[in-house]
Specification:
Largest sheet of chain A: 5 strands, mixed
Mean pLDDT of chain B: 86
Protein name (chain B): Cyclic nucleotide-binding/CBS domain-containing protein
Shape of chain A: globular
Number of strands of chain A: 6
Keywords (chain B): CBS domain
Helix content of chain B: 40-55%
Low-confidence stretches of chain B: none
Distance between the termini of chain A: 19 Å
Number of strands of chain B: 23
Oligomer: heterodimer
InterPro entries (chain B): CBS_dom, CBS_dom_sf, cNMP-bd_dom, cNMP-bd_dom_sf, Diverse_CBS-Domain, DUF294_put_nucleoTrafse_sb-bd, GlnD_Uridyltrans_N, RmlC-like_jellyroll
Largest sheet of chain B: 4 strands, antiparallel
Helix content of chain A: 40-55%
Strand content of chain B: 15-25%
Domain CBS (chain B): 156-220, 228-284
Domain Cyclic nucleotide-binding (chain B): 17-116
Radius of gyration of chain A: 18 Å
Order of helices and strands of chain A: HHHHEEEEHHHEHEHHHH
Structural class of chain A: alpha/beta
Distance between the termini of chain B: 71 Å
């Protein structure tokens, strides 16, 4: 994942322009399955999503992470995709996948520094449209888990819009949004003394749940890191019986 | 779309038992791993539940329990569990709880079995039968040194040169010159059998001709039987080379007849074995006997330490090292007693100087205090004689302290009047201890029931040992008391992070390998040895007698032997390391100074000791027939 500058992270509401928390996702998927034109998208929507009342213990999920050329989906593109399927009980490396893809946008120097994927790496890589069938098949029937959902949601939507002429919608369990929900807010005195609220960066969130440090900015590793974080968050703040609608949006 | 499990592979690569696997295999493992997170306090595995995975701790810590709720183990990052159940009936045998927030890697059973079957080193380290791993660890060490594996017969380069007992000294000298040997075996023959099948009666060496014939000026036709050594120290052909070295050291002889099926096979000389041991302990012993003053003896303390370090560097086993150090300790005492008799004059009545405890068991190391005592002749009259023996004891004990054998904290020394008594009093002591064991005696039981005469009337110590053997064996109350005393010191459960973990789950920073390891093992073995009437002093030899007597559950004897060897060697190696780094060595070991290998195997060894203590408690109950 591409880390946002601290200033942009402070106010989450400004980032999530779309308020999808009230969406009835199974019904929405049925509509989209009927209206989608691309066969891979049709199949994706046909696979459906669990009902909002489904207990977390029974929800198939997939942690998803992109490395991108920048932060703005209008101008940037995806350079790598990592995903790992999971349930509440276990994260399965056997189903994990990782692709490097060639973005239409130019690779910026800053982004190379972050994710280490270079011009020569992407020169040989396929366009995302070539891996779309595989990617959507991996996502089908599963609820996406991401740290900072707007990146994954908007970049994928934009990539599909520019290539297929139609976008994609899907529910996301956002571990960063959960982190905001449970982070420790400093009191008046603490703020006065300069104590800042807990960081919601992936690595910092993980540390609070005693998860090991993973080197960031590799899509596959970040997806795994995000999957583990979700398991920890649910173990500490929810129960296996919590309905998925409490978490997704 | 090749998945890249960088973090997982990196983690596996750094942790046992995966370190022995290639990167390709690790990639294959990583691809099949599942991961789960458990909050502190959460149950990870429930007793009896079906399992299909092997668990490796990625971060955090867990506690493994026995079915009865007793803590079995505590594991942290890199620890693994569930192999017991997995390799048996795929049911959880030991319930597991997260002690801290814990992330686990789960490896599916088919993959685990494949790794286990195809990678010997991996299997060794995971081994469900803990003792097998320990056995291999001990065996691998033993292979490292020829001393431990070479049999004496490999040193025998030629047939023995025999000489009939009717020959003269001159004939012996001629024979030696003709054959180019430095020793001859003297045999009695009869006409109707070949000389090789004859009875061995003595050995004569070129040194005997010099010291016993030429120097005293005896005629050349003196019968060879007058100058030979008749009290023969012999070895069997299939004993180990290091045992021959110990014998040479102990009896200060340079030629040993080798016997096979009762017949002489050859002779090995000092020169034959020197290449096996860089002469160190032999050299130190010789220096001790050559020392003329206590100061010269004191100066040898550093040679003793150097000798110890070299034995460790040469991969000698604990039997060899403990034996060599005991011989050196005994030599100090012998030379000091010689000096004492020069200083104070000949003893007014005969006496026997006793070595007690680890020296008597031939398990002495460098960090040791002196435990000794005096048996005096029954004609001993305190009014007339005690001043002499008190002076002698003070001289020897002070000098021993100066030589590095510190005073016994429990005052078990010949300077203590209680332990400087006539034979008949000693007989009363032992009878009393065995027939009416008191709590006070129990404190001393570990010391007094290992005794050996080192000087003077050494056969008295044998008489006491015989008395002990006779009386102890059939006395179940005494054995129960000894067993109880042997249970006072217990091993720790194992290791957890940088700490020693105790059975109550508490942590300590270091472990006293003597108090928590070798001493309780020696105590335990002593009880069984007394019960089976073993005459041996050394724990390994006692164990052999115990195994032959068949009183232990099958397999337990060899397990105990391996556990003793491993614990003793860890203790020895760490003392050698201390010496190397210029630190005053002690018996304490900090877990961070142990290798992964040592930790794992030590834990197994402690487990064996703990189980053996449970068996001891069960077997020796007061009033129970033994």
């Amino acid at each position: 994942m591409f880390y946002l500058p601290r200033s942009q992270l402070q106010n989450e509401s400004s980032l999530s322009t779309e308020d999808l928390s009230a969406v009835d996702w199974p019904a929405r998927f049925r509509e989209l399955a009927a209206s989608a034109r691309h066969p891979a998208l049709q199949q994706y929507y046909q696979a459906g999503v669990p009902a909002g009342s489904t207990a977390m213990a029974d929800v198939p999920m997939v942690a998803l992470d992109f490395e991108t050329t920048g932060l703005d989906p209008q101008q940037g593109g995806i350079v790598s995709i990592g995903l790992v399927p999971l349930t509440l009980a276990r994260i399965s490396c056997a189903g994990a996948a990782h692709w490097i893809v060639r973005p239409r946008a130019r690779l910026s120097h800053e982004s190379i520094v972050v994710h280490g994927i270079t011009h020569s790496d992407i020169a040989a890589a396929p366009d995302i449209s070539k891996v779309l069938d595989d990617l959507l098949a991996q996502l089908a029937g599963r609820v996406v888990v991401a740290h900072h959902r707007s990146i994954e949601r908007r970049f994928l939507n934009n990539a599909l819009l520019t290539r297929l002429g139609e976008g994609i919608e899907f529910p996301v369990i956002d571990t960063m949004a959960l982190a905001y929900r449970f982070r420790h807010e400093p009191g008046f005195w603490q703020r006065l003394r300069g104590r800042k609220p807990d960081s919601v960066r992936l690595a910092d969130c993980r540390r609070r749940y005693h998860l090991p440090f993973y080197r960031p900015h590799h899509a596959q590793t970040d997806a795994l890191a995000c999957a583990e974080l979700l398991q920890a968050q649910i173990a500490h703040h929810f129960s296996p019986q919590t309905p998925v609608s409490d978490l997704w949006c | 779309m090749q998945a890249e499990h960088i973090e997982i592979v990196d983690f596996l690569r750094q942790h046992q038992p995966f370190t022995s696997l290639s990167d390709e295999v690790l990639q294959q493992v990583a691809v099949q791993i599942s991961i789960a997170y458990f909050k502190a306090g959460q149950q990870i595995l429930e007793f009896g539940a079906e399992i299909n995975d092997w668990y490796v701790i990625r971060s955090g810590a867990v506690e493994v329990f026995r079915r009865n709720g007793e803590l079995y183990n505590r594991l942290s990052e890199g620890g693994f569990f569930a192999e017991f159940g997995l390799l048996r009936n795929k049911r959880v045998r030991f319930p597991v709880y997260a002690l801290e927030d814990t992330l686990v890697y789960m490896i599916p059973e088919p993959l685990f079995t494949e790794l286990f079957d195809n990678n010997e080193e991996f299997a060794d380290q995971v081994e469900v039968e803990d003792r097998t791993r320990l056995r291999q660890a001990v065996a691998r060490r033993e292979d490292a040194n020829e001393l431990m594996t070479a049999r004496i017969e490999t040193l025998v380069s030629r047939e023995p040169v025999l000489l009939p007992a009717s020959a003269t000294a001159r004939e012996a000298a001629i024979r030696m010159t003709e054959e180019g040997v430095s020793s001859l075996l003297v045999v009695t023959t009869s006409d109707d059998q070949p000389m090789a099948a004859s009875r061995l009666v003595g050995i004569v060496t070129d040194r005997d001709i010099r010291d016993r014939l030429v120097t005293p000026g005896l005629p050349f036709d003196t019968p060879v039987t007058d100058i030979m050594t008749a009290e023969l120290t012999k070895v069997e052909h299939n004993q180990f080379v290091f045992e021959a070295i110990l014998l040479m050291l102990r009896y200060n002889v340079h030629h040993l007849p080798v016997i096979k099926q009762g017949l002489p096979l050859g002779v090995i000389a000092l020169a034959d074995v020197i290449r096996y041991e860089s002469q160190n302990s032999l050299f130190v012993v010789r220096s001790i006997f050559n020392a003329q003053t206590v100061e010269e003896l004191t100066a040898l303390a550093s040679d003793v330490r150097a000798c110890f370090s070299r034995l460790v560097a040469e991969d000698a086993n604990s039997r060899m090292i403990g034996g060599s150090m005991a011989v050196i300790g005994r030599s100090f005492k012998q030379r000091l007693l010689e000096m004492a008799e020069e200083k104070f004059g000949p003893p007014p009545v005969p006496y026997c100087f006793l070595a007690l405890g680890s020296m008597a068991r031939e398990e002495q190391l460098i960090v040791t205090d002196q435990d000794n005592a005096l048996i005096l002749d029954n004609r001993f009259d305190p009014q007339l004689h005690d001043e002499y023996f008190s002076n002698l004891a003070t001289f020897v004990c002070d000098a021993l302290d100066a030589c590095g054998y510190t005073y016994c904290k429990g005052k078990v020394m010949a300077t203590n009047r209680q332990w400087r008594q006539p034979l008949k009093v000693w007989e009363q002591y032992f009878s009393e201890w065995i027939e009416r064991p008191s709590p006070e005696f129990l404190l001393n039981s570990a010391i007094f029931f290992d005794l050996e005469g080192v000087w003077g009337e050494t056969h008295w110590s044998e008489m006491l040992n015989d008395l002990i053997r006779r009386k102890a064996r059939s006395n179940s109350r005494f054995l129960a008391c000894m067993a109880r005393a042997a249970l006072m010191r217990t091993p720790p459960l194992g290791f957890f992070k940088g700490f020693v973990m105790e059975t109550d789950g508490k942590h300590t920073n270091s472990i006293n390998m003597k108090r928590r390891g070798t001493a309780p093992l020696a105590d335990l073995i002593r009880v069984h040895a007394l019960a089976v009437g073993s005459a041996a002093h050394n724990s390994f030899e006692r164990l052999q007698d115990i195994i032959e007597a068949g009183i232990l559950p099958p397999g337990n004897g060899p397990d105990l032997r391996d556990a003793l060897e491993l614990i003793a060697m860890v203790r020895i190696r760490h003392q050698a390391l201390d010496l190397q780094s210029g630190i005053e060595p002690d018996n304490n070991i900090e877990p961070e100074n142990l290798s992964d290998f040592e930790r794992k195997n030590l834990k197994d060894a402690f487990q064996i000791l703990s189980n053996a203590q449970k068996f001891l408690k069960f077997r020796y109950q007061p009033g129970r027939a033994v």
